[in-house]
């Protein structure tokens, strides 16, 4: 065991973890196990790095004379005795420092020091923390001190920031001053014209990913856009040409940044500039037309000939009123939003009225795979190798395929169930199998259902008023009722969720999760009876090895939008789609961190940074993420990765190349097979096909590459669900 002294510890506090440490439960500091867990968090996050201890002279001891030679003098004897005593003292210190008590004490001091730093910086020096965090994320360059945490290198950055900001301020001042002189506007306008040409020459969306731009760059962009907005207004003092160029450059920057907010800010500027001067504030029609064409092509849509901005009513100078350009831009944004909504729902064959009325009047449901327990409500219990119309599923809005069972949310918000009934998993009050869908009694209108794909089967239901009900097998406390009792009828989940409005739920194999409107993540289950409590409790994300039989807040996270629970791991997605966290068992790399080291606290999947994620999913030994532009990333182990023949392992998320040419709008996973829905209503499947659940007309298994599901050609499939051994496809548009 290395000595844990200041001399051989390198401290490097990560400011983005300050919120986590500031909210740390102080009860953990009082226990030996708690301290060890917190210390290992410091080590795993590389906030504490143990460096090799310097060579100690203790291995050789003091240098003594050869007494076979001349007898030593009294002074030499005194010197040698003092050297021996000094060495004995150092040996005693070394032995004490290596004792279990000293080790725990040293680690406790480190944890306390880390918490003090987090609390101090978060609550007492916010501006300094913000500046350090920005500098750290943008440059990543640190300098170290001998006996303390590494500090952000600020000298060169401060000089650079001062130079850039001063230079911009000087430029803006000179431009404003030159506009006031009749002989100088040409120079000012040339500067803006040159800047516009540079921006137009950039590839589309060059400034869209701000995570790849330094903090100083983002601040400079904000300064430039603020100046251009002021310059485009009549009150700025700029001449008409300067106002026109400023508005055009501002529009080009908004398009390059690729976010709706910047386009809306341009619209606001155009309307403000046009107040009382509708015909005097203009923009070059060719510039505006090119901007609109660029926006349309970047969005990936076709350009209908009827678009009004294709034939702009320009004046003799080729200019159009600024307010009219703003109206055209707003109209095009609305059209793009509606087109994207319809394409994402796979409803390009439907009328535009579908955008405002997403619930279809008639819904056809198709099923394939196992019917051994009548989970697809067919008379024959034979495998269904090609999707077949399920006539017993009526008035369907949503279907959830579970473990040998199915749940149907009807258009009126009621719930039905069929299939295997053991452990009360159907919620019908008994443990009998149900051959036909039967009404499940729940107090409220059901809007979402999530049923586990493994273990002994349990189900969660979410009502439209944000309440959560659970039923089925109660082992591991996964129902959230404070016990491990089987529940054969839906029961309200209380505890920490009482008074909360839940917006998302998910049932894993032996644990459950819910996300509230405030972006809080609650988990419960797994740990009381697992074969390995140490491993199983990791799925909770609470930083300890204790199971929970009631919903418990994951304090390390905020701003959560959705969650996916696998067999022994959990994936969480932020509401803005920019961050994906994972925690739990890391077998076969299913956490996506590039290793197989389990973690009991949420950890960001770095490989997905810079992508906008729409949905995450977790299976038995794999995970996946769907991006907003329809690309699928997989990681973990097995045929569900869909990357090559045979089973393989991927420790990091990698793009599923076989589906890169299509746009995926939804994905569903069972225990060990995957379904993917494209915006053209085509469905692909891969993974375990032993029961025909991949819809390939056979039961040869596994299917290692995505294959189009047979029998659905020409059918407008809009939703999919994958159970343990069966799959469901239906035509109703999602209500959400």
TrEMBL record:
Keywords: Repeat. This is E3 ubiquitin-protein ligase HERC1. It comes from Diploptera punctata. The keyword Membrane does not apply. PROSITE patterns: RCC1_3. Residues 130-150 are annotated as: Disordered. It comes from the Eukaryota. RCC repeats lie at residues 413-465, 466-518, 519-576, 578-629, 630-680, 681-733.
